[in-house]
Design a protein that fits this description.
This protein is of the alpha+beta class and about 260 residues long. It contains two helices and 20 strands. Strands 7, 8, 11, 15 and 18 form a five-stranded antiparallel beta sheet that branches. A three-stranded antiparallel beta sheet has the order 12-13-14, with no helix packed on it.
Length: about 260
């Protein structure tokens, strides 16, 4: 019965973690480029009273055994990098990545962050930056007299200036991919950082060697599906209730046992 109390408690804790993950997904349903999380679980160690396949006293092999588990634990919260819907914005500095890849952002720490959020801006010096003012890598500067900005599918950035009929190329946006993007470390502010699990960034030209392409005037929305997350909320609540019931039942059995004379 004490084992039942502990197992039920681990189940309640696991469902609380799942609720936290689901709540965060729903909170970011409108966050540009957000990738939803999924909580994964594993069963804990088992206490073996009789191992499967052992022989009984008369030499007959037992087809099954007696093993009682100790509950459940959260093993990871994994990012799911499926594509979100494309939203038309008609903003010249908005870009959506169709396919694999991340934009590279220079962080104040000197590190390079990676993001799917393509809502870019121009600061007072004409440098292309993200919403926090961190510059794009490689650095691209838009001339002050630029009449229009064009971003090609291959990341080529060109501008039209007064007195010129042909557009001038001012830079190229590069993308980065990872062998295991699920191993990236979420840093907040729509930024991911590489880890030993993700591997090093592989930088290249959009549209080449498996890289995605860029689409100007669009943004990638969150890949969170509200209906799916609401179903997760319902199943999580019910699972939490079932585990709490097992705790209550184990407590009642202990109370019954302690009242025996």
């Amino acid at each position: 019965m004490l084992r039942g109390l502990n197992s039920g408690a681990t189940g309640m804790e696991a469902q609380q973690t799942k609720l936290d993950v689901t709540s965060n997904n729903l909170a970011n349903v409108s966050t540009t480029g957000f990738k939803k999380n999924r909580a994964d679980f594993q069963d804990l160690l088992y206490q073996t009273f009789k191992a499967p396949g052992t022989s009984s006293a008369d030499g007959v092999e037992n087809p099954t055994g007696v093993q009682i588990g100790a509950g459940v634990k959260t093993v990871d919260t994994q990012k799911i990098f499926t594509a979100g819907d494309m939203l038309l914005t008609n903003n010249a500095l908005d870009v959506a990545i169709e396919g694999d890849g991340f934009l590279q952002i220079q962080l104040p720490t000197g590190d390079i962050g990676y993001t799917r959020d393509g809502s870019l801006h121009r600061n007072s010096q004409g440098v292309i930056v993200n919403a926090d003012g961190y510059p794009l890598v490689p650095n691209i500067i838009i001339p002050q007299d630029a009449l229009s900005v064009n971003i090609g599918n291959d990341g080529t950035v060109s501008v039209t200036q007064p007195g010129q009929t042909a557009a001038n190329v001012i830079g190229n946006i590069q993308l980065a991919t990872f062998i295991n993007p699920a191993g990236l470390s979420a840093n907040g502010r729509n930024i991911f950082l590489p880890s030993n699990a993700s591997g090093d960034a592989i930088v290249g030209v959009p549209g080449e060697n498996g890289m995605g392409t860029l689409t100007q005037g669009f943004l990638e929305s969150s890949n969170v599906k509200v209906v799916e997350e609401m179903i997760n909320l319902i199943t999580t609540q019910r699972a939490y209730e079932f585990n709490s019931k097992s705790v209550q039942t184990a407590d009642q059995m202990l109370r019954t046992t302690s009242s025996l004379k």
